[in-house]
Design a protein that fits this description.
Rossmann fold, Alpha-Beta Plaits, elongated, 13 strands, six-stranded mixed beta sheet, four-stranded antiparallel beta sheet, alpha/beta
């Protein structure tokens, strides 16, 4: 069952591009990654999906229903925006109890448990908090009602490494309990750690949808070649080679394709040394972007 579905979802701000013909499905129980640099359209897609802004065209549903036509679907949703803003004169506990009142359930125990996990002082006033602590408030607020769908937009900005680790452990536990998760980020390592599938977005368009396992295993190799003499600049100008850097007697590149083809090319060079390793996802990510330029 698709918990999130976007069909040709498009949003323009006047003449300015937001997102263009975004098609995306997130299945029940999945942790799905939504990846792209700042300004690629991630937040616009999420806000349009949630009915916070109106689409120019196309459609989007949560649990099979539009947030615009059926705002009640939001009761099963936990949302952490990329930037959090609150009534600054309120205490943290008062803000969270106020948020919990919308769900008509007693969340006091849950609030205390989450605050302890995230090392959040419930007695402090919002305007006394650092950006990182305000982000913790957003995390607790988004999870206090045990939502069936969790949407996270750049969730770890402002969190120190220890809190990031605790946060991802918490999201993993919610997923094991049955929650579906959409994780939007420009940090590929976060997605690699958490997600089963990932969509790459660039300039408002989805350019690739892939399983994380496929990204890691799909015959991408990082080559470092050291020859006994200068390597011609054109030696590796062949299909499948990207991110090529040739300098004197060394060459570095990523290769995707038939390994025998690239080894045949390398065999024509008198080698001093060679290294063949799996590239990390960051390199693969940049490879996708380079192909689209």
């Amino acid at each position: 069952m698709s918990i999130i579905e976007m069909k040709d979802l498009t949003k323009y701000y006047g003449r300015a591009r937001g997102i263009i013909d975004v098609n995306l499905n997130v299945e029940q129980g999945e942790i799905f990654g939504f990846i792209g640099p700042n300004g690629a359209g991630k937040s616009t897609a999420i806000r349009t999906l949630l009915g916070l802004i109106y689409p120019t065209s196309g459609s989007a549903t949560l649990f099979g229903k539009s947030c615009l036509e059926h705002p009640e679907v939001r009761k099963d949703l936990g949302y952490l925006p990329s930037e959090v803003f609150y009534y600054e004169n309120m205490r943290v506990i008062d803000l969270l109890k106020y948020s919990a009142s919308f769900y008509k359930k007693n969340c006091s125990k849950r609030i205390n448990e989450l605050a302890e996990r995230m090392d959040l002082d419930l007695k402090r006033k919002i305007d006394d908090l650092s950006f990182g602590n305000k982000k913790k408030v957003g995390i607790v607020q988004g999870l206090l009602h045990e939502p069936k769908l969790i949407i996270l937009d750049e969730p770890t900005s402002g969190l120190d490494p220890l809190m990031q680790q605790r946060f991802f452990e918490l999201i993993g536990e919610e997923n094991k309990k049955g929650a579906t998760v959409l994780l939007s980020s420009h940090i590929l390592g976060e997605v690699k750690k958490m997600c089963s599938r990932v969509a790459f977005i660039k300039d408002g368009k989805i350019i690739k949808l892939e399983k994380i396992s496929t990204l890691q295993e799909n015959s991408y190799k990082r080559f470092s070649v050291e020859a006994k003499s200068a390597i011609p600049q054109e030696a590796f100008n062949i299909s499948g080679v990207s991110d090529l850097e040739v300098k004197n007697n060394t060459a570095h590149f990523i290769f995707k394709g038939d390994i025998n083809a690239i080894l045949k090319t390398i065999s024509e060079i008198e080698l001093h040394n060679i290294s063949i390793v799996e590239p990390d996802l960051e390199e693969i990510f940049l490879h996708y972007y380079a192909k689209e330029d």
